[in-house]
Design brief:
335 residues, alpha+beta, Nuclear Transport Factor 2, Chain: A
Length: 335
């Protein structure tokens, strides 16, 4: 009797665990998590990213890096050179301008900003990118367009609000992240060895601003002879044949709500050809006759499957200069 009783008890216990296991299996099937999302750390919201950005800007303006919530290890560059936190612009800034173009990628914990800074007697276009993990800053990438140090001076700078860049797109108009990056990357493919072939799509009213100056649909910008044309027309003309390489491209931030992609990289100029033909047969002279490189931040507004607006800041750096960010990416592939 006792043995039979124990047997019944054992069967009951096994049956109970069997029901629990079955219920858990059913629950797992219903939940069906996405493995990639499930493996990611908790995301930082847009509002939280902007709080970190505002705190960073306030600390920079006060020249007090101790007011920033830093991670235990920080990767920090200014104009593509690794610096200790608190060096460079932190010591020379005298004013932070009112221009405020901001955007965020909550999925990757990235926040970006275009503005202006003054260092004693020169106001410069200014871009920063921050990576935030658990409300702490782990990466800072800064670009300051100090025109006194540059061989190309952009006259007539205007730092003003651009409604297209701040527009929040309805969900139905938003593109998948890979498509957004593809269109931005296609812009660089079109610019590289530009021969009139398009590898991306442009809105008919596409505009581009570089270092605070509109360089499309602007006949008064003498630095680029085709600046009177729109984005697509400039590239179809094959004007930028002298852009030899668009190197070390990085697409660090995708703001899906606003249709924005922030990219960084280099434009290399080998210094040849000295003269070339546009697609209409016009002979033109290259503005670059020696080895030369630009380091750049470029922000693309994507709407209706095409590029609508571009905001870029760039500076001259030594020819073929490498990027610390590429070194760090190789050292930490999961970054």
């Amino acid at each position: 009797m006792r043995a039979n009783g124990l047997g019944v008890l054992a069967l009951g216990v096994l049956g109970m665990f069997g029901m629990i296991g079955s219920a858990m299996a059913d629950q797992a099937v219903q939940w069906a998590p996405n493995a990639r999302d499930n493996a990611l750390p908790a995301r930082t919201t847009r509002a939280e990213l902007y709080v970190v950005l505002d705190s960073y800007l306030a600390a920079l303006k006060a020249q007090d890096p101790s007011r920033v919530a830093w991670a235990a290890q920080v990767r920090n560059t200014e104009n593509n050179v690794a610096l200790m936190v608190g060096d460079g612009l932190w010591q020379t800034i005298t004013q932070l301008g009112s221009y405020d173009l901001r955007f965020a990628d909550p999925q990757l914990g990235q926040v970006g900003y275009f503005g202006t800074v003054t260092e004693t007697d020169e106001t410069a276009a200014f871009t920063i990118r921050l990576k935030v993990v658990n409300q702490k800053v782990t990466e800072v990438e800064t670009l300051v367009v100090r025109q006194l140090d540059s061989g190309i001076k952009f006259e007539g700078q205007k730092f003003e609000n651009k409604p297209a860049l701040n527009e929040v797109l309805p969900p139905a108009q938003r593109l998948p992240r890979p498509r957004m990056i593809s269109l931005a990357d296609g812009y660089f493919d079109t610019l590289q060895l530009n021969d009139g072939t398009l590898f991306t799509k442009f809105h008919a009213n596409c505009k581009r601003v570089e270092n605070g100056v509109q360089t499309t649909n602007n006949p008064n910008f003498a630095v680029v002879p085709v600046s009177r044309l729109g984005c697509e027309e400039q590239f179809k003309a094959g004007n930028y044949r002298y852009d030899t390489r668009l190197r070390a491209r990085r697409f660090m931030l995708v703001d899906e709500e606003r249709g924005l992609v922030l990219a960084a990289g280099f434009i290399d100029h080998a210094g040849v050809p000295h003269e070339y033909l546009l697609t209409d047969g016009t002979k033109v002279r290259s503005p670059v006759h020696r080895p030369h490189s630009f380091y750049l931040f470029e922000l693309f507004k994507l709407k209706d499957g095409a590029i609508e607006q571009i905001e870029a800041n760039f500076i001259t750096v030594p020819y073929n200069m490498p990027s610390p960010w590429d070194d760090w990416a190789r050292a930490d592939p999961a970054r």
